[in-house]
Amino acid sequence: MFNLGLRLRVMVGFALISGSASLVLGGWVYLTFQDLERRLIDEALTAEVQDYRARLARNPASLPPMTATVRGYLLRDDRPDERPPELRSLPEGRSPVSVGGVTYRAAVVRAGDATLYMLHDNSAVERRERRLLAAILVGIAATSLLAAAWGWWLAGRVIAPVRELARRVRERPPSDLDTPFAEGLPHDEVGELAHAFERYLARMRAFVERERAFATDASHELRTPLTVIQGAVEVLQGQGDLDRLTRARIDRIARAERDMADLTATLLMLAREQRSDAATTADCPVEEVLREVVGQHRHLLDHKQVSVTVDVREPLALTVERPLLAIAMGNLVRNAFTYTASGSVTITLEGGVLSVADTGPGVAPQDLNHLFEHSDRSRRATRGAGIGLPLVKRIADRQGWVVAVQNRPEGGALFRLGFGARS
């Protein structure tokens, strides 16, 4: 109903119902009054006609009545026609007529060899009808206003529990999952709704506890083996008697360990509802992280004829956790390196926007709007390449950044990560 509040909708509904009922009742009263007035006038005309006919029978020279409300005319063949022109076309019976700008109710009857015209002035009746109509309209307006006021008051009483429940939900801190919603509310539909909220919160509480337990376990159980792997890789890399193939495999393990460590840290940060202020006190240099992730993923271009250009036109520093920035940019770079079989990858940092352009196969037009979703369609579009691009979208949403993709006219895809007001 035009986005009106519930209380206002109830008030308007009361006013409309009351106004409609008053209009119907007022119309019935007005029409009944008109019919009654017409019947009374016809009875008065009948009485005047009968009285004059009786006088005419006693005295043929008797003149028709001529008072303030009744005017009579007698038409005889042996006398001149004194009727007003408006009466000459009137048929026998009762009918309305206007004479000299005045409305009359006319009765035309035969009286022997003469025709009698008896007119009753309707001016007073019309004035009473206008006053009645005005009174009805004022009554309708007053009734509608009173109904609206009463509806406003009643709606306030009725929806008070709903507003109280809404206030409790609105003001409830996310950490408070134990305080009952239904306490103090009536045992009706609103109370049932509050209990439904409580049951839902109970399920949410269990879910949150499972998530917290998982985050805590992941923080300890994943970091410990990653630290062990990192230490072992550093020891192996320090040995000088390794052959080229073995060293390449150890370097691959080191890259995988760094990727896993950054991904674990990023997922744990995203699992927290609020950012850690201690982790974001220092500015993170975007160029330094960018060149780091490019070097980290350059192995994907081994045995490919692909040139990489990193063009930092405007240095930029962000107040952001370094793993988040590294994962966001690293996934875009890795995506370009993975799907570009030949040609070039151009990475540009300018105006607070990171652009990654490649000469790969591009993205199917029907998949452009679904590339950053956690869905089967997104996995098909990226050929099952994991959570990379949806994870970039989660990080961007958390930080207030904007990520977008489009196909290049000359071929390939262009990803943009705009750092916005946080740059």
What does this structure look like?
- This protein has 423 residues and is α+β, with helices and mostly antiparallel strands.
- The protein has four domains: 6-138, no CATH class; 173-212; 230-271; 278-422, Histidine kinase-like ATPase, C-terminal domain (Heat Shock Protein 90), CATH 3.30.565.
- 53% of the residues lie in helices and 17% in strands.
- The protein contains nine helices and eleven strands.
- A five-stranded mixed beta sheet has the order 6-8-9-11-10. A four-stranded antiparallel beta sheet has the order 1-4-3-2. Strands 5-7 form a two-stranded antiparallel sheet.
- β2 (93-99) and β3 form a beta hairpin.
- α1 (6-58) packs antiparallel against α2 (123-171), α3 runs antiparallel to α5 (244-271) and α4 (223-237) packs antiparallel against α5 (244-271).
- The model has no long low-confidence stretch (mean pLDDT 82).
In short:
With 423 residues, the chain is α+β, with helices and mostly antiparallel strands. The chain contains nine helices and eleven strands.
Lateral strand order in the biggest sheet: 6-8-9-11-10
The helix fraction, in percent, is: 40-55%
Low-pLDDT ranges: none
> Average pLDDT value?
82
User: In terms of structural class, how would the helical and strand content be classed?
Assistant: alpha+beta
Elements, N to C (H/E): HEEEEHHHHEHEEHEEHHEE
The whole-angstrom Rg is: 46 Å
Broad CATH class of the largest domain: Alpha Beta
**What fold name goes in the CATH topology slot of the largest domain?**
Heat Shock Protein 90
The total count of helices amounts to 9
- Amino-to-carboxy terminus distance: 43 Å
Structural shape: elongated
Strand content: 15-25%
- Domains, number: 4
Q: What is the count of β-strands?
A: 11
Multimerization status: single chain
